[in-house]
Give the backbone structure.
Amino acid sequence: MDDTHDWYSPEASTFGDRVAGAREQAGMTQKQLAKRLGVRLATLKSWEEDLSEPRANRLSIMAGLLNVSMMWLMNGEGEGVEAPFEAAPMSDNMRDLLTEMRDLRTDLLRRAEQVGRLEKRLRTALQESSDG
């Protein structure tokens, strides 16, 4: 498997990974990109940390500023940036650990969304019981 080919693929990276990678290759700091997008630094950091995602209009502006396609930012397909240079090749063990960490992060994000939905249902049920 060619690591440079799938560095930013959906299986190997998240939306936040692709934003950070494109921003770095564009030579911008988080602060600079946030200013150019008209968002707070904390907002950009939450996007890069996969805690939230931008609305479509900000996504479009970001893609233009970073010279990548919106589809590439969202799912790793389309016009994007090259994989970063690695000083030394990764061992199979390191690659397995990285893959396991990414899988765990994806699962944690999915679980966090599930908790949010359950909290909303609970709030609705509590409101209905107090109204009724």
Summary: Residues 1-5 have pLDDT under 50 and may be disordered. The radius of gyration is 18 Å. The longest helix spans residues 92-131. Residues 1-87 form a domain with the 434 Repressor (Amino-terminal Domain) fold (CATH 1.10.260.40).
